[in-house]
Write a structure and sequence with these properties.
Number of domains: 2
Structural class: alpha/beta
CATH class of the largest domain: Alpha Beta
GO biological process, one term: proteolysis
CATH superfamily of the largest domain: Peptidase S8/S53 domain
CATH architecture of the largest domain: 3-Layer(aba) Sandwich
Radius of gyration: 23 Å
Number of helices: 14
GO molecular function: metal ion binding; serine-type endopeptidase activity; tripeptidyl-peptidase activity
Cofactor: Ca(2+)
Protein name: S8/S53 family peptidase
Largest sheet: 8 strands, mixed
Keywords: Calcium, Hydrolase, Metal-binding, Protease, Serine protease, Zymogen
Helix content: 25-40%
Shape: globular
Length: about 550
């Protein structure tokens, strides 16, 4: 008997426009991700860790984690037989990564899964493949499948750029969606890149001084950057380090840069170089590893499967609105984030640049963005930082610090007090929902941070700039403490109102600021030295 599942129900961006049906003869490669048999016990271990002081935590090695999250051989065999019986080709399995991969035509996969495939267009006129219907899976397999990659081709994760560049482009000839489209589409002209003037802004040294970061350079740390696109430019990093008299860090690339449409490619190039440079600016003696990925679960898996690099901190500047993420992907991400927590890895993500609205909704759908809103990720919002240290909520025209309340998910326990305190001040906004951001630093496009792009100074702004800056702080904390803080969210919320944060930051992002936590800047901007001191002070009595 086949079971319908809403977990894999197609979730489309609010701005998607239907185009045509997909070509039934085109081939599609799917990857089925399988649930580890020991998942419940392993996740209980994660819960125990979050209630333990970071110094007392016993994190798992990569080998121990793989053993704990093993997939039963029988499950892999059943999944492989399911694909082979459907006459799919190139069927392969990997027990360590919990995957079975197979290739079939659109017609074969439509019949196998009980869905139909179609072409849509996103708000940048880029085509992508999507499916209609509810996926059907055999009863004996349904409970063991956490996700299916490959059902969407060309659907880009949202980005969190400092400025949205208005460039128009249909499908490039090398688009992975092209062979699914029955009628060829005419390619339009690329609108071109904006000329950038010579600019001056905050240096890394300015920011570490203004936010009182611990006095080290991230020695012994490895910071992973999950990139859903963009080309890293080593020459720009070298220029950046020379400009600010920094030691040039070791940067390693894992994976292959995924295809992106031209207008996304340009913005993604800015994103990835911003991430690398701002991390390098804060922790020049840390190692930096860029993980190219097609999705956030793909990126999290890449870190977990990396046997060469001991990543201690992860940062990403990409985001999707929560309404655009399927339940299957949310389940995958949550499980993988729990595993990263068991390894002692801190994960940070940009909260968004559209205030109370979800990324990709054209400022029409309120809510939060993922992965920032997952309860084991530090959601990084934005402030406007002045040279005297004063801050206000980052809000420039249509852009603002991403923050607000989920329209889907309830709050984690550690947010209860912070939210109730905010709702006492603003009772009309009260709701039972998780909220972002958690912490904030400078994201201003006026009082901006300087990066190098294509050999010239460039504005690093938006919460895309905030995430790598706070990731650098976490790496400095790890170095200063000589242990990993790991998933520190619960501990941060216990410090609400303390001198670890500057929390009385005025302004709004569509919602009002408040004393304590608020949906504009979260707990506030960090004072690194004070935060370090409070972590040390609580080593003796917080179990």
């Amino acid at each position: 008997m086949n079971t319908y599942t809403d977990d894999f129900f197609q979730t489309l961006p609010p701005t998607a426009v239907y185009q045509t049906t997909a070509d039934n003869s085109a081939e599609l490669t799917l990857t089925f991700h399988l649930l580890p048999d020991t998942n419940e016990n392993a996740l209980q271990s994660t819960s125990n860790l979050s209630n333990t002081h970071p110094k007392k935590r016993q994190y798992l090695s990569a080998a121990a984690l793989k053993q704990r999250f093993a997939v039963n051989d029988n499950t892999i065999q059943k999944m492989t037989e399911f694909a082979q019986q459907a006459e799919l080709k190139d069927v392969s399995s990997n027990a360590e990564t919990h995957e079975v991969t197979a290739t079939g035509t659109i017609a074969q996969l439509s019949q196998l899964l009980g869905v139909s495939f179609h072409i849509y267009q996103d708000d940048n006129n880029n085509p992508f493949l999507a499916y209609h219907g509810r996926i059907q899976l055999p009863d004996e397999l349904r409970a063991h499948i956490t996700g299916i990659d490959g059902l969407n081709v060309g659907l880009q994760a949202g980005y969190v750029p400092s400025k949205r560049l208005k460039m128009m482009q249909i499908a490039a000839e090398d688009s992975p969606v092209q062979h699914f489209i029955q009628q060829p589409k005419k390619q339009t002209d690329f609108a071109g890149e904006q000329e950038q003037q010579q600019i001056e802004g905050y240096s890394p040294q300015d920011l570490t001084a203004l936010y009182h970061f611990p006095n080290n350079q991230g020695e012994g740390q490895t910071v992973g950057i999950i990139a859903l696109g963009g080309t890293f430019n080593p020459s720009d990093l070298a220029t950046f380090c020379t400009l600010f008299q920094l030691e040039k860090p070791d940067v390693q690339i894992v994976g292959t840069e995924p295809w992106q449409p031209p207008q996304s490619k340009f913005i993604n190039d800015i994103e990835i170089n911003m991430d690398v440079q701002l991390v390098a600016g804060i922790v020049p003696k840390a190692k930096i590893v860029v993980y190219y990925a097609r999705s956030f679960p793909d990126g999290f898996r890449a870190v977990l499967n990396d046997t060469e690099n001991e990543v201690s901190v992860i940062s990403t500047s990409w985001a999707n609105g929560e309404s655009s993420v399927s339940q299957a992907e949310k389940t995958q991400s949550a499980m993988l984030l729990q595993q990263l927590g068991l390894r002692g890895i801190t994960v940070l993500a940009a909260s968004g640049d559209y205030g109370i609205y979800q990324v990709g909704s054209n400022n029409k759908v309120p809510g939060v963005n993922l992965p920032a809103a997952y309860d084991s990720v530090i959601a990084c919002g934005g402030t406007d930082l002045f040279s005297n240290g004063r801050e206000q909520v980052w809000h420039e025209n249509a852009n603002a610090s991403g923050g607000g309340f989920s329209i889907i998910s309830p709050p984690p326990a550690y947010q209860y007090y912070a939210l109730s305190n905010y709702f006492r001040q603003y009772p009309s906004y009260a709701k039972n929902a998780c909220a972002t951001p958690d912490l904030s630093v400078n994201a201003s496009g006026v009082n901006y941070t300087t990066m190098i792009f294509k050999g010239k100074p460039f504005k690093a702004a938006g919460t895309s700039a905030a995430a790598p800056l706070i990731a650098g702080l976490i790496a400095r904390l790890n170095t200063a403490l000589s242990y990993r803080v790991g998933n520190i969210n619960s501990f941060l919320y216990q410090l609400i109102g303390s001198n670890a944060f500057s929390s009385n930051i005025p302004g709004n992002n569509g919602l009002p600021a408040a004393v304590g936590w608020d949906p504009c800047t979260g707990l506030g901007s960090p004072n690194g030295i004070n935060l370090l001191g409070l972590i040390k002070q609580t080593e003796g009595y917080w179990e």
